[in-house]
Amino acid sequence: MNLVFLYNSQFADSALIKAFKDSVLTTKPVTGGNVLLRWGNPNGADENARVVLNRKQPLKNCLDKEKIFEILRINRVRRPRFVVPKPDSHYPLIGKYFNSTNGLPQEKLVTDFSEALNSGADFFVECINTLKKYNIYLFNLHVFYMTKKVPVKTNTRKQPLPMWVYEEIPLDLDRDTLKVWQLAQRAVHLLGLDFGEVHAGIDALGRPVILDVSPVPFFPPSALELFFEHVMNFIASETTNPAARKESAVLLGADPEFVLKDTQTAQLAFASAYLNKHGCLGYDERSERREGCLFPLAEIRPKPDPCPIKLTENIRSILGKAVSLIPDHIEWLAGSLHFEKYQIGGHIHFSNLDLSSRLLQALDNYLAIPIMLIEDPVTSSRRRKYYGWLGSVRIKPHGGFEYRTPASWLVTPDITRGCLCLAKIVASEYIVLRKDYFIDPDLQKAFYQCKKHYFYDIFKELWEDISNTTLYAEYARHLVPLTDLISANSHWDEKMDLRKSWGLLPPV
User: Is residue 506 part of a domain?
Assistant: First the structure.
């Protein structure tokens, strides 16, 4: 089976042990092994196995309930806020306990200050009024089982009040279901977990909220069977020779955004005044005040291509068409942020490969960090208060997914080409790109604040890995504009009109 199942007996019931009886079952670290699955046991080094599911440090973070809520707070994931109980605090509150041991209390509802003082809780969070509650079970970023809390009437006279149970539901049951599992997917990724159980809900305003996360799920029987199947499928894919993957299979697409600025008034010019909604050149669906009348952002939608060089030329061709549609006194601006509320992004689409924990981890580290290092630090940090978070992805209905973390790299053709070449390398070679610096919450915070000095030494280590990939030689010269900016501790000029930087204006 090539699986070492390293477990903590406090978290493992007989059904779980029986399911994994053919693996190497142990409560003590072992040396060697193909795949190491940590079931609530953070002992021993990750380096003892080729692949680790629920790595040591993320697991340790998530066995500390307070750490979970802190990491979610850093990443602006909606969750109960920390509260220090006072006599005049808004009650009830939820008292939380550091331990995650099965059979011991993990949380307690407290209704007043006296009860909070005597609860023995390690910390407290607000009690969120939820209209719906769910349990979401994930493995390798895929939701494989989901339940919803529903009322059940009992038939006994002794207990006539409604009881609540969690029953299995399809992932596409309704819009709320979609919202909660997508947020759960992001939460598990940000916590660095490969699998876990997320307790989530819909609040009184109809928003998804994470209520708790466990790295050692309590599985209903049918969910345990599905979890075992996913683990076995993962192991089977890991034993496949990585050389069998063809880099040309990774298809790249993009929909980078830019804004229009009226040079006569220095005000935003709405893209919907000049462009249609659909087609290779259009406006983004985000509308002014969400009224659906005025649309501020322009968007390029080139035809996907396996080659990042050809994709860049497709973008150039579309930009050239825009010259005749937009008046001469309107500037085109890319980057991060030019007008408050109108953050712009450089979304990159990937097809012909499956979204997975390690792929998204590689994109955050080997793509998002280098691009962040060439962004304008002032506007980058302002943009990431609302957009461009780590692990920001969207599944596309036609297949594949888009990675939404980077700012709009349209600023120059050289930077566009370099970013797309780097995306191609990372998506094609992510199996060997294994560093993950974002298991450190301080580095997550530094990324959002665009504190580049935290990342310059890290970049050297990341780039050494990039340089050792098989694709690097093919695209190396196109990456020079990126590395030159980073080496000079400089950044792109997002105030430059795209028509000038792309050579679209006639010579004066």
Answer: no
